[in-house]
Amino acid sequence: MTPVDYRSADDDNMRWEGFPFRAGDIVISTRSKSGTTWVQMICALLVFQSPDLPAPLAELSPWLDWRGAARDDVVGRLEAQRHRRFVKTHTPLDGLPLDPRVTYVVVARHPLDLAVSLYHQSANLDRARVAELTGGPAPTAPASGRPSLEAWLRRWIDWEGSPREQLDSLPGVLHHLSDAWARRSEPNVVLVRYEDLSTDLAGEMRRLAERLGFDVPEARWPPLVAAAGFEAMRDRADELVPDRQGVLKDRRGFFRRGTPGAGRALLGTEGVARYEARARALAPPDLLAWLHR
Q1: What residues make up the domain containing 193?
Q2: Which of 289, 68, 267, 98 has the alpha carbon at shortest distance from 187?
Q3: Burial degree of 18 (CB within 10 A; 0-12, 13-18, 19+)
């Protein structure tokens, strides 16, 4: 099946075409602010079985789709790796080549919490630097200034375009997850929920190890779990954030501890009802039950 074209100003999923997969490769497919770096770190800890990584995380697990780095350079670095590879993408599975030798890990997060994090992350991006790296147009500030979080969130809920126009929209988020949910019975597709990582990190790391085929000696688990904790990762921001080319204003700010349910609290009863109605129109009920639980 021909992959869906999800190319944008910042990334190009067609860069996956012809990628030389190896047996055992791991592809981490997420929407922005859903726990991408967290799951990359967990995979790194499982691969190397030590909190001490041999290189910055973004070099070990590059974002292949991103236009800000030459594809040949990224693929060359991956081909030079002798360890088990784990690659980042923000492309849904229907936009990727699907290889039975590869395990695809899709990370989900409650869409309202994801959106709140997106809003804050947007303020931490150096848009001029992103445009310089990707060849996009120079950014211009909106004449009315930045909207409040509540106003932005309500517009995010109500936006009715196509996922292909904006994958970080509500339609895009729920399309990404609906596509993965429909494939969840396939042996090489693994779904991970951000909230489960938050409440049972050790248990979820063990589950991922089992699904990915890693055998971790019992004595190694405590330091690995500790290294995947929020504070431990934020303390290593320079090593772990996906920012080798200076697109973030504040690397430690990338690890912002969001409050679960912040979006619901901000919207109130009427706003949450509007969100839930939109979600029901965009995703199957069993996915939503899992996502919202």
Answers
A1: 13-292
A2: 98
A3: exposed
Q: Give me the catalytic one of 90, 110, 175, 176.
A: 90
**Dist CA 78 CA 59 (whole Å):** 9
**Confidence (pTM):** 0.91
Share of the chain above pLDDT 90, in %: 77
35's tokens:
């726990």
Residues 47/41, Cβ–Cβ less than 8 Å:
no
Q: What is the DSSP letter of 12?
A: -
Is the pLDDT at 77 greater than 60? The verdict is yes
Per-residue pLDDT at 72 exceeds 70: yes
- Residue 182 contacts residue 92 (beta carbons within 8 Å): no
Cα-atom radius of gyration of the chain, to the nearest Å?
Answer: 19
Q: Which two tokens stand for residue 80?
A: 């030079």
> Can you tell me whether residue 45 is helix, strand or coil?
helix
Q: What is the CATH number of the domain that holds 157?
A: 3.40.50.300
Q: In this structure, what token pair is assigned to residue 284? A: 């199957």
- Cα distance between residue 86 and residue 185, in whole Å: 21
Segment 37-42 mean pLDDT: 97
First to last CA, the chain: 33
Yes or no: say if 247 and 125 are a contact pair by the CB < 8 Å rule: yes
State the Cα–Cα distance between residues 113 and 262, nearest whole angstrom: 7
Residue 127 — pLDDT band, cuts 50, 70, 90? low
Structure tokens at 278: 């939109």
* Residue 227 pLDDT: 98
Number of folded domains in the chain? 1
292 counts as catalytic? no
Contact of 216 with 209, CB cutoff 8 Å: yes
In a domain, 3, yes or no: no
**Residue 7, in any domain of the structure:** no
pLDDT at 122 over 90: no
Residue in this structure with the two tokens 């501890």, named with its chain if needed: 257
